[in-house]
Structure formats: structure tokens, C-alpha cells
Amino acid sequence: MDFSLSLEQQMVRDSARDYLAAHSDSAAVRRVTEAGAAHDEALWHAVAGELGWCGIALPEAVGGAGLGAPGLVLLQEQLGQRLACVPFWSAVCVAAPWLQASLGPRGSAHWLERLACGELRAAAVLPDDGGWQYDGVAIGAQAGADGFVLRGCAAQVADAAGADWLLVPARLEDGVPALFLLEPAALAQDARIMLAPLDTLDRTRPQAALRLDGLPVPASACLARADAAAFGLAQAWWHGKLMLAAEQLGAAQQCLDLTVAYASERIQFGRAIASFQAVKHRCAQMMVLVEAARSAVYGAAQAWETGEVADGTGIRLDIAAASVAADDALRFCAQEAIQLHGGVGFTWEYDPQLYFKRAQAASHWLGGAGAALAYLAANGPNAWRTA
């Protein structure tokens, strides 16, 4: 497979890298997290509105750039490298493909147009068990005369704070899957819905717990049912996992860059520690894992864009492999960055601790590497099956 980037893709990558280096550097990230803010509002308005990043992967018919998964992966890699405090992953990488897959091209156009221009931000409630099926959905919907009544909870919802739309999967009374769209601002005074912010290890991506205690919603809030809803959830989960791997790849690359820069400046025994063979070997191992993850992520993005998504098995295997590679790369590079920074590596003043926290948190999102390995073991070409 050819992983070479087109001129357009190179421009997307380079412009994103330069913009985020200037507007989402370490100082900017620390200002947001230390102030307790959910997101960097100035950065979000810039990337969503002025730069048009929210529509990078969406079709041109809805105001997007039509660059698909390969283009979006490049943005996610740069956002992960800078730990950008924006709800991009939730809105663009999960919510948008969920609406697209559940409602189809025509049915989703109205919703996608508003996401593409950055007018609104969306968050998505994903199953707590780290799977892509409705088995782990803990929210039920009871049909009534004027709509539905929602009951249940979700332990963690990424970027729920400040979201204009909340995509909620639920099970109808007969067990049929359904997708609901809620507007938290309009329900803010209703005690039957609660979004409670969580104090988490990685404060660059805020989480909230959702509880629905008999919340009535109109029939129009149910966007999809049955196979369409189930297919949409699966697509959103796998697409989100691919883009999360791209984000982890970018964070791993930054760990390597920070380490090489520090080792080149740190003098010990009259020499920069970068000249020591042991340090070289450890940096080389970091680079090997980063490049392996990059190949896997880029390859999975190409497979998503060119493959038959409706079938999904081969594409999902590619995404699962990319997820494992990116998770391994980030965890290894984050811990090596701390070790190779020596006695200051774990301190608040240095950046490796930010990436170590992201590595630990991201290793549990969407089931982490464990869910990916389980899928590979069950569905890979050499999967063992009982008769």
C-alpha cells in the first residue's frame, strides 16, 4: 500500500503542525488545565470556524473538504502531538460518522452541515463496556404518547461539557436499538438529566458522568432505529478508535521529540547525554515504535477510505492492529521520556508528565489495547475457533 502523502495532504499536515505549535504549546495547554476550563475556547473557535477543520473529512456536498479518513488522521496526529484542549475527537471523529452512518447521506446532510462549519459541538455516549455493539448500552427508552422516556446512565462521556448535541444510544422496550439526539442546553433546568464533571488524571480531555432519570423527549429526538442505529454505533466506535490511535501516534512523536531535544542539551561528564550509546539505543527504540505505529495508522486510514465499510471485518482488523501499535508506542515513549529526562522527568515543570497522563488515560478509552487484541484474536486470519 502506498502511504505517500499528496501535496494537499502535506499542506494539511504542515499547516496544522505550524498553527498548533503557535497556539497550543505547553504554556497554552497548562493555562487551560490549571484554570479548570473544559476546553480552550479560543483555539476551538479558530480550528472549527476560521480554519474549517471540522469539515476536513466530510463530503463537499455538506460543506466539507472531502479528504476523508486519511486527511482526518493527519489532523488528529497533530492535535495529539500538542494535546490540544478542544472537543475535536468527540465531534468530528465520533459524532459525525455516527450521524452519517445511521441516517445515510441525505438524512444526515442537515446535521453534518452544522458540524462541518463548526457551528455546533457534539459529544457521544459510547457503551461503557468498550464495545461497538448495543450489548453494553445501559440506557433504556420507553415509548409514550408524545415521545419517549429515557432512563439509565453512562459512567464517562468525553467532552460532554459545553456540547450542543449529545448522541445517546438506547434500547427500546422490545430490545430494538435506537439513537437519540439531546440538546443539553435546552434541558439544563430539568433535574431528570444530570451531567456531572469528573476529576480525571488527564485534564486535557474532560469527562462527565451522565444520568437520565425518566427524561421525557419528543419523538423527533429519535433519529434512527434497528439496523441503522446499530450500524451507526459500530461505525462511530471503529472510526473513533482509528482516530484515537492517530492521536496517540502524535503524542508518542512529541515524547520522542522532547526527549531528543533534552538529551542534546543535557551535559553530563562534559558531553551531551545524546552522545551516550545507551541513550541512543533507547531513543532509537522509541523511533521504531513510532514509525511502526504511523505505518499501521496510515494504512488503516487508507483501508477505511477505499474498502467496503459495510463488510468491515478486514478494515476492523487493520484498525485494531493500529490501535495496539499506537497504544504501545505512546506508553513506551511516555515512560522513556520521563526516564531519559532524569531526575526532573516526572516534575510538573516538564512536559513528559502531561504525555504520561494522556498515555495512561487513552489506554482505557474504547476498551484500549485489550479490546483490540481480543478482536484480533477472535477474528484474525489465524484465529482459533471451536467446532
UniProtKB/TrEMBL annotation:
<dbReference type="GO" id="GO:0050660">
    <property type="term" value="F:flavin adenine dinucleotide binding"/>
</dbReference>
<keyword id="KW-0560">Oxidoreductase</keyword>
<dbReference type="InterPro" id="IPR009075">
    <property type="entry name" value="AcylCo_DH/oxidase_C"/>
</dbReference>
<comment type="similarity">
    <text>Belongs to the acyl-CoA dehydrogenase family.</text>
</comment>
<dbReference type="InterPro" id="IPR013786">
    <property type="entry name" value="AcylCoA_DH/ox_N"/>
</dbReference>
<dbReference type="GO" id="GO:0003995">
    <property type="term" value="F:acyl-CoA dehydrogenase activity"/>
</dbReference>
<protein>
    <submittedName>
        <fullName>Acyl-CoA dehydrogenase</fullName>
        <ecNumber>1.3.99.3</ecNumber>
    </submittedName>
</protein>
<dbReference type="InterPro" id="IPR009100">
    <property type="entry name" value="AcylCoA_DH/oxidase_NM_dom_sf"/>
</dbReference>
<dbReference type="Pfam" id="PF00441">
    <property type="entry name" value="Acyl-CoA_dh_1"/>
</dbReference>
<dbReference type="InterPro" id="IPR036250">
    <property type="entry name" value="AcylCo_DH-like_C"/>
</dbReference>
<feature type="domain" description="Acyl-CoA dehydrogenase/oxidase C-terminal">
    <location>
        <begin position="239"/>
        <end position="367"/>
    </location>
</feature>
<keyword id="KW-0285">Flavoprotein</keyword>
<dbReference type="InterPro" id="IPR037069">
    <property type="entry name" value="AcylCoA_DH/ox_N_sf"/>
</dbReference>
<feature type="domain" description="Acyl-CoA dehydrogenase/oxidase N-terminal">
    <location>
        <begin position="8"/>
        <end position="118"/>
    </location>
</feature>
<dbReference type="Pfam" id="PF02771">
    <property type="entry name" value="Acyl-CoA_dh_N"/>
</dbReference>
<dbReference type="InterPro" id="IPR046373">
    <property type="entry name" value="Acyl-CoA_Oxase/DH_mid-dom_sf"/>
</dbReference>
<keyword id="KW-0274">FAD</keyword>
